[in-house]
Amino acid sequence: MNLLQQVNFKLTLQNPKYSNLEYFCVAVNLPVVTMGEVKQNYRNQQGYFPGDTIAYDALRLKFMISEDMMNYIEAYNWIRDNSITPGPGVRSDAILSILTAKNTSNIEIRFHDAFPTSLGELSFDVQAQTVQFQPCDLTLRFNYFTIAPK
């Protein structure tokens, strides 16, 4: 039995308009999941029971910016399209594939109806001592996720 490796993953967005975002993705988190609780008093004691609402933190990913900034532009246009288009906006399922030590897909985590809510800043500095490639953070909201063995 092998342990889970943090470097073996692949992110896929179920929309061909965002292929550059997924290709340059270098980090992604599996968000926190919380469930409410119900407090019940009984004979001078408090008991707790599971609530009926699950809350998911946002999906945060980091991608490296390509020289032509196509992946940054994709993310920006996705946010912009959602702000302009009336109705539910542009949503896409995001699939986080957890890979084995042999780089084969082992588990698939599907984030349903994802859309971006935040695009991180880019820093430019002519006084930098060394060349550093630009990363950028993107935050996605989604309704829920499902986990399935591959």
Task: Characterise the protein shown here.
This protein has 150 residues and is mainly β. The protein has 2 helices and 9 strands; from the N terminus they run βαββββαββββ. A hairpin with a 2-residue loop joins β3 and β4. The radius of gyration is 19 Å and the shape is globular. It starts with 8 loop residues before the first strand and ends with a strand.
Please give a handful of descriptors for the protein shown.
about 150 residues, about 15% helix, two-stranded antiparallel ribbon, 9 strands, mainly beta
Low-confidence stretches: none
Mean pLDDT: 90
The number of helical segments is 2
Task: State the distance separating the first and last CA atoms.
Answer: 17 Å
- Beta percentage is over 45%
What is the rounded Rg?
19 Å
Structural class: mainly beta
**Tell me, what's the shape?**
globular
Outline:
The protein is mainly β and 150 residues long. The chain has two helices and nine strands, in the order βαββββαββββ. The protein has helices at 19-23, 70-84; strands at 9-13, 25-28, 33-42, 45-56, 59-64, 92-99, 105-119, 135-141, 144-149.
Give the topology.
Elements: E1 9-13, H1 19-23, E2 25-28, E3 33-42, E4 45-56, E5 59-64, H2 70-84, E6 92-99, E7 105-119, E8 135-141, E9 144-149
Antiparallel strand pairs: 1-6, 2-5, 3-4, 5-8, 6-7, 7-8, 7-9
